[in-house]
Amino acid sequence: MPKVSDDRLAARRREILDGARHCFAEYGYDGATVKRIEESTGLSRGAIFHHFRDKEALFLALAQEDAERMADVAAEQGLVQVMRDMLARPQDFDWLGTRLEIARKLRTDTSFRTAWLAHSADVEAATLRRLERGRQAGRLRDDVDTDVLVKYLDLVLDGLITRLASGQPTDDLHAVLDLVEESVRVER
Predict the structure, then answer these.
(1) Full-model pTM
(2) pLDDT at residue 158 above 60?
(3) What contacts 24+ positions apart, CB below 8 Å, involve 88-95?
């Protein structure tokens, strides 16, 4: 039997992740049955679970991938920019519904919570580093601890995600994000 190249394995894994992301976003964790994941990816159960131990491992891989993407943007441009990107290009954030499923699983599944918290720490650490750099440069207020600012921005992010995922209007949210950004900056 010929050996499958690493590139082909990576491409297959990418196909599975992309199809599964759409499926989880559309149906939620419980509604994303293995049959629906097969239909969404166009692959068999065996092909999918050759790459992922089970449905939860697939879901966690998606959650981790999204956390890493957010951490990269947060480290470079700030968490408010992540939120601005969500408003500008919601089609690029088909994982918003998945984020709501993450919140539900965090509450009900201790093994998932342990794995997720280890990876979501990347986003928080990136945000904290960016805030510290901003504070050192004199751009951010220094009367509030940076850990508090990170939690504040994370709460705003969760609220934005809930609003977007539930299909509520977003017309006024650019002004809200301006207010959020102003609230963490030094008054000029």
Answers:
(1) 0.73
(2) yes
(3) 90/164, 90/170, 93/164, 94/21, 94/22, 94/25, 95/21, 95/24, 95/25, 95/62, 95/66
